[in-house]
């Protein structure tokens, strides 16, 4: 799992005005982030608006990402749901031969107990042909996966190899880092907290911001992993206002506004996500102008 250390980027899904997938823009984005130095890419993460994609579109996105990445960096595929049986079926049907791992979000909406979360992951890990990365994001799922549950899975289920932690709870993060198996990776899912979490001992970040700040964010993570915190702090403070703007209304509305300003893709979405407000869009433009971008 050394290949999953460093900077991963949760790719957005570009759309055209007619709401079809903009494949040319996605290819442009993939090349942009790889040229910017990210260590791997994640397709079909929640930042990719996966709840609005059809089953066929998800398969097409997996195949397209493999083709355009062309083994330049590893590819992680997002496959998660609150329906355990459905996740197992999708693991069986998806073309995963070229995947480095599966990123699977904790069950959402149904708010299962910790035992339910444990059994969910144990079941999908047994069915998965690829290693599983746990994903704890209680702000979206409605239920926190505790440090105890994470550590139980890490120690007891062989095919579970990493955790993307986006609870925002620094004490919980440190408990996991302290008590995890030696080869189990702990990956930040919070761009604004990434520097602090890397200082605590995390192994990298799966980032939204790296869609736009590919070069600077990758350099930040690399510097922090090399214990060069003065350089990492400089980069962090350069991007800090950008992180705030990105997430002030909605993800991925914020990051798509940045990418629209950069000319990488149109500022288009599928409902229920809508574009950033005009006021926020202007703020982002002024921030980028201030940076000289």
From TrEMBL:
<keyword id="KW-0457">Lysine biosynthesis</keyword>
<comment type="function">
    <text>Catalyzes the condensation of (S)-aspartate-beta-semialdehyde [(S)-ASA] and pyruvate to 4-hydroxy-tetrahydrodipicolinate (HTPA).</text>
</comment>
<protein>
    <recommendedName>
        <fullName>4-hydroxy-tetrahydrodipicolinate synthase</fullName>
        <ecNumber>4.3.3.7</ecNumber>
    </recommendedName>
</protein>
<feature type="site" description="Part of a proton relay during catalysis">
    <location>
        <position position="46"/>
    </location>
</feature>
<dbReference type="InterPro" id="IPR020625">
    <property type="entry name" value="Schiff_base-form_aldolases_AS"/>
</dbReference>
<comment type="similarity">
    <text>Belongs to the DapA family.</text>
</comment>
<feature type="active site" description="Proton donor/acceptor">
    <location>
        <position position="135"/>
    </location>
</feature>
<keyword id="KW-0456">Lyase</keyword>
<keyword id="KW-0963">Cytoplasm</keyword>
<feature type="site" description="Part of a proton relay during catalysis">
    <location>
        <position position="109"/>
    </location>
</feature>
<dbReference type="InterPro" id="IPR002220">
    <property type="entry name" value="DapA-like"/>
</dbReference>
<keyword id="KW-0028">Amino-acid biosynthesis</keyword>
<dbReference type="InterPro" id="IPR013785">
    <property type="entry name" value="Aldolase_TIM"/>
</dbReference>
<feature type="binding site">
    <location>
        <position position="47"/>
    </location>
    <ligand>
        <name>pyruvate</name>
    </ligand>
</feature>
<feature type="binding site">
    <location>
        <position position="206"/>
    </location>
    <ligand>
        <name>pyruvate</name>
    </ligand>
</feature>
<keyword id="KW-0704">Schiff base</keyword>
<feature type="active site" description="Schiff-base intermediate with substrate">
    <location>
        <position position="164"/>
    </location>
</feature>
<keyword id="KW-0220">Diaminopimelate biosynthesis</keyword>
<dbReference type="Pfam" id="PF00701">
    <property type="entry name" value="DHDPS"/>
</dbReference>
<comment type="subunit">
    <text>Homotetramer; dimer of dimers.</text>
</comment>
<comment type="pathway">
    <text>Amino-acid biosynthesis; L-lysine biosynthesis via DAP pathway; (S)-tetrahydrodipicolinate from L-aspartate: step 3/4.</text>
</comment>
<dbReference type="GO" id="GO:0008840">
    <property type="term" value="F:4-hydroxy-tetrahydrodipicolinate synthase activity"/>
</dbReference>
<dbReference type="InterPro" id="IPR005263">
    <property type="entry name" value="DapA"/>
</dbReference>
